[in-house]
Design a protein that fits this description.
- The longest helix has 22 residues, at 70-91.
- Helix 3 (31-45) packs antiparallel against helix 4, helix 6 packs antiparallel against helix 8 (123-141) and helix 9 crosses helix 10.
- This protein is globular.
- It has 191 residues and is mainly α.
- It is 73% helix and 0% strand.
Length: 191
Amino acid sequence: MSKKTLNTANLAALGAERLAELLIEVSTGSADMKRRLRLELSHNLGPAELARDVRKRLVTIRRAKSYVGWRKRTALIKDLRTQSAMIIDKIAPDAPADAFDLLWEFLALAPSVMDRVDDSKGDVGAVFADALAEIGQIAARAPLDPIALAERTWEAVQGNTDGAFDGIITRMAPSLGDRGARTSEGADPKL
């Protein structure tokens, strides 16, 4: 294998300082690249700092109102995938309760995002579906109150007009337990 082939080993041989310089150079003019690098720096400071930055980005995405044309569609998908990956891969292992809240917030973005983009290919919906597939596992590791979770799940089911929360009851069932399941069915949780 050539020493000029772009791979991890050859790039690591350049050294940390040179790689940092190259990253700064490459990220100039690229908001996506800068955002990703900042998220990685936040991750180094701990899951709480990364969670704070992801939450800020989710707020920005939620507030956006402009239509996303075909030229910016790929960037939106990449941004959504990055936020989801930060939650699932970086925050969840050390702070599952924070990751659960963030992933729920991420899924709640689906209606506003889907209203602003043509998803005839299903790529945007797939990002939300992939996130939904992970939420049950994260919930199982998080110390969640089953009654509050039941109420939150019920609200999501009632407002699930776009399919972002399809199958959420099944995914939350292990974390709801008997007490939470009875609450979601309208029974007194003390029984």
